[in-house]
Amino acid sequence: GDLYKTFVKKYSQLMGITEHDITPYARLAFDAVYVFVVGLDNYFNDNNPLRERTIDVWNSFEKAGNFEDGPLLYKYFKNVSVSGVSKHLEFNAGGEIKNPKYDIVNFITSEAYFREIGSWTPANGVTIHDKVVFSGSTTQIPTYQIDSLRGEHLILGIDVDPPFIIHEESCGDGIECYSGYCIDLVRDLAKTLGFSYSFRKPSDGTWGGYNEKTKEWSGIFKDLLEGNIDIATVHMSINSIREKDIDFSVPFMQLRYWCWCVCSHCSSLGV
After folding, report:
1. Would you say the pTM of this structure is higher than 0.85?
2. Rounded CA gap, 10 and 4, in Å?
3. Which of 115, 164, 196, 200 is deepest in the core (most CB within 10 A)?
């Protein structure tokens, strides 16, 4: 629409690039702000209050108390339905985007750039529409011997988190009752490497993390470190604390996050 055209014109002038060189990240940033603005606009149009809450982001949120208007505002964000630059944007009851689509990219050495060669969606799985270029600028599939795990049975730690891991509760707890991005990866790897597998949810029922006071891990992290599972098959972000105790695979996905910040001097910046 006109709003995006204005954004493209001003952004390209600001960055000194042509309109065709605007990165996917910039387009996704536009969509994120667009959803935020529409949700906020709908919230105020219904005459809802938005009471200011001062929060010190460097200390515990509990000290600042609850953001009374937060739950209702969040509901408005979840009800946003707009046609963004990347796709039509709608959200389910849990706040996850409906019909997510993830691009599959191939790093092209000669171009020093990631080229989009396919996509993954919950409905269609993996779709490849272009040839994969391997190291050496060849499209021939390498013939080296892939290490085999034939005969091995792996216990894979999972935690339900759509669209990465989706559980059909009416189905039960068998491996056939799970789907999603990570599950598709497991199935393809099992087929290639010849291993069997089963899933196990966190023993304490939580995703878990590291407790600075007790110096202990919980949830899926504890299961992994204690040997209750062989691999944590989840979209776990890599950080320095986790890397001290956990070995990670090569990153297979790059995600974009929203960050909401409280700015005490935004008016002086024209924001």
Report:
1. no
2. 10
3. 164
